[in-house]
Write a structure and sequence with these properties.
Blueprint (H helix, E strand, L loop, with lengths): L8 H25 L2 H8 L3 H7 L3 H21 L7 H18 L1 H12 L6 H24 L8 H17 L1 H8 L5 H17 L2
Helix pairs in contact: 1-2, 1-4, 1-6, 4-6, 5-8, 5-10, 6-8
C-alpha cells in the first residue's frame, strides 16, 4: 500500500485556517448550528476549496475534538503521584482555570459536545478518559489513606475542579455581567479557588 504524500506547507496552512475558523463557528453555534458555508467564509476559502481538505462538517468537528481532548487532559496527566498532594491538586486547579482563560472557545466546544450527548466522542470518554480519571482517582485515594489530604470521593473531587474552573469559560458572559467590567474574573477566581480547595484538602 502506497503511503500518502506529505502535505505541502500551503496545505498545512489552509487546514489550520479551516480548523481555526471551524473552532470559532462551532464554539458560537454548536455542531448543529454550524454550516460548511459559514466555516468556509470565516476561513476566507471557497466551499469547494474547504472540501478539498475536509470531506464533511463532521470530519472537521472530530478533528477539532481530537486535538482538544489531548490538550484538555494534559494537566490531569501531569499530576504526579510522587509530588506533594496539596501542591499537585492546587496546581491542577490553577492550570485548569488558566486553560479556561486562554482557551474559552475550546472549552465551549467541548461543553456543547457533552451537552448534546457526546455523539462524536462517547467512545473516548468511556475508555481513555475513564481510564485516566480512574488512575488519578486512585492516586488521590492513596494520598487520603496516607493522611496527606482530607478524605472525600476522589472522582467527585475531580468533577468539582472541572466544574469550578470551566464555568469561567463556558459562562463567561454571565460572570462578567454580574461582576462588572472593572473586575478580572480569573484573578479573583484563582484567589478564591486557592482558599476553597486549600480548606477542602486540609487533613
Amino acid at each position: 500500500m502506497t503511503a500518502p504524500k506529505p502535505r505541502t506547507r500551503i496545505q498545512e496552512k489552509n487546514r489550520a485556517r479551516v480548523l481555526e475558523a471551524a473552532l470559532e463557528i462551532f464554539s458560537l453555534h454548536g455542531f448543529r448550528g454550524a454550516t460548511l458555508d459559514a466555516i468556509a467564509a470565516e476561513a476566507g476559502l471557497s466551499k469547494p476549496n474547504l472540501l478539498y481538505y475536509f470531506a464533511s462538517k463532521e470530519e472537521i468537528h472530530v478533528t477539532l475534538l481530537g486535538g482538544l481532548v489531548d490538550t484538555w487532559l494534559a494537566p490531569l496527566r501531569d499530576m504526579r503521584a510522587d509530588g506533594h498532594p496539596q501542591d499537585e491538586l492546587l496546581g491542577y486547579v490553577r492550570r485548569k482555570l488558566q486553560m479556561s482563560r486562554d482557551f474559552p472557545r475550546e472549552s465551549r466546544l467541548f461543553a456543547q459536545e457533552i451537552v448534546q450527548g457526546a455523539p462524536r466522542m462517547i467512545d473516548g470518554l468511556s475508555t481513555d478518559l475513564k481510564a485516566l480519571v480512574d488512575d488519578k482517582a486512585e492516586v488521590i485515594r492513596d494520598w487520603m489513606d496516607a493522611g496527606h489530604i482530607a478524605r472525600s470521593d476522589p472522582h467527585h473531587l475531580i468533577f468539582s475542579i472541572w466544574s469550578l474552573t470551566q464555568h469561567y469559560a463556558d459562562f463567561d458572559v454571565q460572570v462578567r455581567a454580574v461582576l462588572g467590567a472593572d473586575r478580572d474574573p480569573f484573578a479573583e477566581a484563582e484567589a478564591f479557588l486557592d482558599v476553597l480547595f486549600t480548606r477542602l484538602l486540609r487533613p
